[in-house]
Amino acid sequence: MTLTSTDPRTGVASPTALEATSDAQVDSIATAAASAADELRRMPRAARAALLRRIADEIEADRDALVAIAAAETGLAEPRLNGELTRSAFQFRLFADAVDEGGYLEAVIDHAGDTPMGPGPDIRRMLVPIGPIAVFGSSNFPFAFSVLGGDTASALAAGNPVVVKAHSSHPLTSARSFAALEAAARAAGAPDGVLGIVYGQQAGAALVAHPRVAAVGFTGSLHTGRILREIIESRENPIPFYGELSSLNPLIVTPGAVTARGADIAAGLFASVTGSAGQLCTKPGVVFIPRDGDAVVDEIVRLAKDAAAQPLLNGGIHASLFRIEHALVSAGGAHALVPARVGDTGFTATPAVLEIDAAQLTPAATEEAFGPLVVVVRYDTLDDVLAALDAVPDSLTATVHAQPDELDAAGPLVDDLSRRVGRLVFNGYPTGVRVSWGQHHGGPWPATNTLHTSVGVTAIRRFLRPFAWQDAPEALLPIELRDATTSVPRRVDGILRLATLGA
Amino acid sequence: MTLTSTDPRTGVASPTALEATSDAQVDSIATAAASAADELRRMPRAARAALLRRIADEIEADRDALVAIAAAETGLAEPRLNGELTRSAFQFRLFADAVDEGGYLEAVIDHAGDTPMGPGPDIRRMLVPIGPIAVFGSSNFPFAFSVLGGDTASALAAGNPVVVKAHSSHPLTSARSFAALEAAARAAGAPDGVLGIVYGQQAGAALVAHPRVAAVGFTGSLHTGRILREIIESRENPIPFYGELSSLNPLIVTPGAVTARGADIAAGLFASVTGSAGQLCTKPGVVFIPRDGDAVVDEIVRLAKDAAAQPLLNGGIHASLFRIEHALVSAGGAHALVPARVGDTGFTATPAVLEIDAAQLTPAATEEAFGPLVVVVRYDTLDDVLAALDAVPDSLTATVHAQPDELDAAGPLVDDLSRRVGRLVFNGYPTGVRVSWGQHHGGPWPATNTLHTSVGVTAIRRFLRPFAWQDAPEALLPIELRDATTSVPRRVDGILRLATLGA
């Protein structure tokens, strides 16, 4: 089956030279990845870091073509796509630094010694790669969460082969991205089979079911996430599933914040809701504004009414936006202050602003609408907010806009939000996720599977497993666990030690 | 429904005063645990460490009664049970040390600063408790993997409430253990509801389904593990499942090792296979002996024939041992060198030694027989071993007995085993798992879910999740993430720093 590529700015689909991957091809790609795993594991960390840096170089060298192709397949603006490509390259280099540093290995040495239970053997532990990783790119980040995205970077940094499932909304971007990956792999001397790509929904399912695939990274809908989990549960050996599935990202503005900086907040919020046409996993989808915060709401309404239509990523997302907006009003009881309007061409739409009273908020009013839509919830007291939050699904982020003298009163709210999300933002906006060591992009279900991040350096941990050597001859130990090694941080006999220069 | 307690040494069941927990009671216990979670999270780490140490003290103070009750419910010998109780107490104290040290928090501070993508906000991350944990104790470790076991210690150390599901084979031990936990909690000023216990299979299922339960730790059969996963997948919010389910633990003896220390190996292996009546998750269940290693096999056979019957933990395990032994012979094609025999009283049995040729090894010959049974696999070359390993399920451990001059030749075998297990043991035995920082007790499915250990300090990580604060006012940050704090190891702006004395 030949694949098509659709320009969401026009809605015109064009044939490509790409074909859906057959089950037999998936098998051969996954098998090749498994064969490459051993050789990749034996590459020194420095060689793997060099591979990651080479990838960053390759994608920057092909920047113009990649951005142009992605713009035609996603409708995202070129400045945004350029920034995203920069982020992807930065991410590969940051992860290369982490591989060089070696702290991610969590190396531990317990020398043989007496314990209350008798003599204890020598035990040495570190994290090792788990095997070929299936990576499902998302529609909304054709670079940073797709073929060149954080899951690919994490899996390779950890030392695993990667097989990506190209997103059906940007097949040509995926193919061009994959070519950059492959060029880097060749240049860096990575083993054959360490990178693979498959196309088509059936190929994705076959990949998740493949016995040699060791884990799945997925960014997409809750519905598809559930289907992939079902495939995993029907495997003989269930494997880890890292899904980033859905997030409402509640944002609360206190009365003091409205008074002190209402206009700024209206502008910042509108930008956060409508940036990239609202198609960000951290878009604040439900925003709590006090009853006497009309000035803020009026300004958001004004901005929304004035806004031009923007293209959404594909026809499905475009149709869903209007379907969900309708459901939020009809079943959810929200009132459309500004309804979304279909634009003149392709899959374009204007922003929507809905309003509902905190006391009326139910789960029917908090379905995620992926696109430039925000539900404004009006409240009288912070206790009303607390009560209404039970209708909001757990999320990646929550945001509080509050003045310093309100922090004590907001304490219970902050505590409550902490249980519901993975990142708490103060007096800012959750979109624009910083890629750094401390970032956490994850939250209780349905945001993710709670335990790990998909952005930031610690995302590497998802694709590693601990391994212990007991009384192993030194020659069989990895270099990082030999006694004389001091070049990586380690915990030795219970005491954490920094790396020192030298071996 | 009133529960009974059965003495496996006699097979006699006696009524207890314990009742199966109703669904309504499970709901109230889980809800109380969720309410306690907030208060527990606010306890300073030092107070939580004190709670863990107090638990160790309480269980040691009640040692004699606990051991006597457990002996009558499990048939395990008192020296073994005393050692196990010592291990449980040690574990609580070791985890208290880890809580005090604070490295497990993985604290990270990224100060605000410029990035290639523009200005980056201040991001601070550390691990936080995930919420109430359901702990399913195992039959074979009434202390170290049950109410007082590693899952309870890990979950509490992480700062989570715990609800244990008492094992039906040792309800009185569970109740007495729980009383020690509760006494410690009261003495340490822990919040009400932080500890709960439920009895009965239905209560266990209700616990796993309960919306306020945040994760499940389970040690038991593959069959029950699959049932619990099904319950989890049918939840509105699937939660992490940490199952330790089944393990064959292949052990390979090279020709050189047979020549150099055949008699020692026979004795050590027999002890490892039959200790605790072979009811250890790390028991070597399949052992590769070279064709010309008759001396080793003959000695194991002699020891097995001479061995007295030992009680197994319960009637189910006793019946399974004989059923599986029969299947290994009839469907698996193994030959019984020494068949198991039923003892004179209760659920007792003598050891079994089966033999099969490496070329004949199929999955039908590698079902785990929980009890004193070993399958000896005879081989001609290490390549035969490599080929035969495909019939062995992935395991917690693998063991190699080899002479120093054989290590080069054994390289491919060691590589292959590394992919299949979580711990590799050299010239020793996998049973007797050291509790330490570096221990890893986990392996690819069906051993565990691969990514985490259930023994050793890093087991705490299973019950934590990352959390990030963005631009948070200092007063709202946990003490461990404030700039002035130096008492825990942290990564600051990418650089790992050790703790220093003081704040």
From TrEMBL, chains A, B:
It holds the Pfam family Aldedh. One of its GO terms (molecular function) is aldehyde dehydrogenase (NADP+) activity. Residues 7-436 form the Aldehyde dehydrogenase domain. Its EC number is 1.2.1.4. Keywords: Oxidoreductase. InterPro entries: Ald_DH/histidinol_DH (IPR016161), Ald_DH_C (IPR016163), Ald_DH_N (IPR016162), Aldehyde_DH_dom (IPR015590), Aldehyde_DH_Superfamily (IPR050740), ALDH_KGSADH (IPR044151). The keyword Acetylation does not apply. The keyword Oxidoreductase applies. It comes from the Bacteria. Gene3D superfamilies: Aldehyde Dehydrogenase, Chain A, domain 1 (3.40.605.10), Aldehyde Dehydrogenase, Chain A, domain 2 (3.40.309.10). SUPFAM superfamilies: ALDH-like. This is NADP-dependent fatty aldehyde dehydrogenase. The lineage of its organism: Bacteria, Bacillati, Actinomycetota, Actinomycetes, Micrococcales. The gene is aldH.
